[in-house]
Specification:
The complex is a heterodimer of chains A (232) and B (252). Chain A is mainly alpha-helical. Chain A has helices at residues 16-19, 22-38, 44-61, 65-71, 76-88, 103-129, 132-141, 146-175, 186-213, and strands at residues 93-96, 99-102. Chain B is of the alpha/beta class and 252 residues long. Helices cover 37% and strands 23% of the residues of chain B. Classes of the chains: A mainly alpha (232), B alpha/beta (252).
Chain lengths: 232, 252
């Protein structure tokens, strides 16, 4: 069916990185990213060390480089911004390939690119090696407030449902001669998104009714983790 | 007669905007019955269903489930006794896996450990979905999701199963499979539907809700065979469908 595989960031595998407990991976990722962000631009060797460490983990996880590379495109807007920075910044100018660029701007661009790329790659690696349900369990084990974990869980569960709904609405718009890409039709697209919000809100109410009907009292019950239950 | 499983008396409900959805509904359903609740769109069928497990509160009148009045002090027990399967399985299946969804209800009732596992296993077996326990619900087909939705309620061992449009959006094979499952269950059923052949196939008795009151209550085959009454309640059979002839072929 149209939904396909729900978790587009996960890459199935059994490497040590896949098997590591989710809460450890989340905590390590957070610490690693904070460390990378706090490192001054000029410590190029430090970034080289981070990158080497990260690539080592990627190699250990046996997630194909192409798989991660394709998902790195989320970084593109930041790359574009980073490329522009040396041209629009002030300060002493220097020559690169015959173009006059700002030297502090060049350093800022380098910092943005290096930190951004390492951060995105690290996050993707964790996402590729951790099942979404494990991520939620990991967050719960890290004592993230239960309400937040519940919200994240519902988001995971309904992301595909809402995406499919949006897809159907877009098909209906195209069928009536409206091209969602053309700026002339953006007001219509905007109204569609509004309608999608209202529909999702109503669905939220229906889900809540269904939960109440099965005795929900505001707290999620403790269910056994998949590993601890026998299979029928 | 014995005490009815569902005992609805003079039930009236007005929404906050003043719309009167129910204006004095009387309905009794006895143990082991399978009853179809029919009626045109906007007749108040869903409003009635939401009163049966105490989601909505009556403006007047009362609902009791096996003698227990539906109301604040024992809502939890009422919701165990009345299992509602909603129309869209995506509304009913909100957890990350089939197992967790089926376990949600009994876990809210306080079941843990082996007792909880046994409930989940049995409910999934009843709908033939025991091999799918670890799947996320959105990876299942629509018919499978509908069956799991039924299992989520069966796991609470309800006294009455209330189904809202159980056959909607199902392909004919899934529709028949669900009918086989419903027939195999030893539980009282109240089924809201527009699918009249389905009502005839599964429910010997039918009640019609029209303009917020019970407008007809009797044998399904008699109701469907009475064109005048059908027209009055805006009910229509599919083209060429003959209820009496269809009953002749009914599976035992």
């Amino acid at each position: 069916m149209g939904a396909g595989h729900g978790h587009r960031l996960h890459y199935h595998g059994h490497s040590p990185v896949h098997r590591a407990p989710a809460h450890l991976k989340i905590a390590t990722l957070l610490a690693f990213v904070l460390l990378v962000v706090a490192t001054p631009h000029a410590w190029v060797w430090a970034f080289a060390a981070y990158a080497a460490l990260l690539l080592g983990v990627v190699a250990l996880s046996r997630v194909p480089a192409a798989y991660l590379a394709k998902r790195m495109v989320v970084e593109v807007p930041f790359v574009v911004f980073a490329v522009l920075v040396p041209f629009v910044s002030h300060g002493p100018r220097t020559e690169v390939l015959g173009l006059s660029v700002s030297e502090p701007g060049l350093w800022a661009a380098w910092g943005l690119l290096a930190k951004g790329t390492i951060g995105v790659l690290a996050s993707l690696t964790v996402a590729a090696t951790t099942e979404p349900q494990q991520l939620l369990a990991g967050l719960r084990r890290l004592r993230l407030p239960d309400q937040l974990v519940q919200i994240a869980g519902f988001m995971l569960r309904y992301l595909d449902v809402v995406t499919e709904e949006l897809g159907r609405m877009m098909v209906a718009m195209r069928s009536r001669g409206c091209d969602p890409r053309s700026p002339r039709h953006w007001p219509a697209v905007g109204r569609t998104l509004g309608a999608l919000f209202v529909r999702s809100y109503e669905r939220g109410e229906r889900v809540h009714l269904a939960m109440l009907s099965r005795g929900y009292d505001g707290r999620m019950p403790d269910l056994p983790a998949p590993a601890h239950r026998e299979h029928a | 007669m014995s005490e009815p499983v569902l005992d609805v008396r003079r039930l009236a409900h007005a929404y906050p905007d003043g719309h009167e959805a129910l204006r004095g509904v009387d309905l009794h359903v006895h143990r082991g019955e399978r009853v179809a609740l029919l009626g045109p769109n906007g007749a108040g069928k869903t409003t009635l269903v939401l009163h049966l497990n105490g989601i909505l509160t009556p403006t007047a009148g009362s609902v009791s489930v096996s003698g227990l009045p539906v109301g604040a002090p024992h809502l939890q027990e009422v919701r165990r006794r009345v299992g509602v399967v909603f129309q869209d399985p995506d509304d009913q299946l909100f957890m990350g896996s089939v197992h967790d969804d089926v376990a949600f209800g009994p876990a809210n009732l306080g079941l843990r450990g082996e007792a909880l596992r046994a409930r989940v296993r049995r409910a999934l077996e009843q709908v033939g979905m025991q091999d799918y326990a670890d799947r996320p619900p959105h990876h299942l087909s629509y018919g499978q999701r509908r069956r799991v939705a039924v299992a989520t309620v069966l796991a609470m061992e309800p006294e009455v199963l209330v189904l809202d449009e159980p056959s909607s959006n199902l392909d004919p094979a899934s529709r028949r499979e669900l009918a086989d499952i419903l027939r195999s269950l030893d539980v009282t059923v109240l089924m809201v539907t527009h699918d009249l052949p389905y009502a005839l196939e599964l429910c010997p008795r039918a009640v019609v809700l029209h303009d917020g009151v019970i407008a007809a209550d009797g044998a399904t085959v008699d109701l469907l065979g009475d064109p005048e009454q059908m027209a009055r309640h805006r009910l229509e059979l599919p083209f060429g469908f003959d209820p009496r002839a269809a009953l002749g072929h009914r599976p035992a």
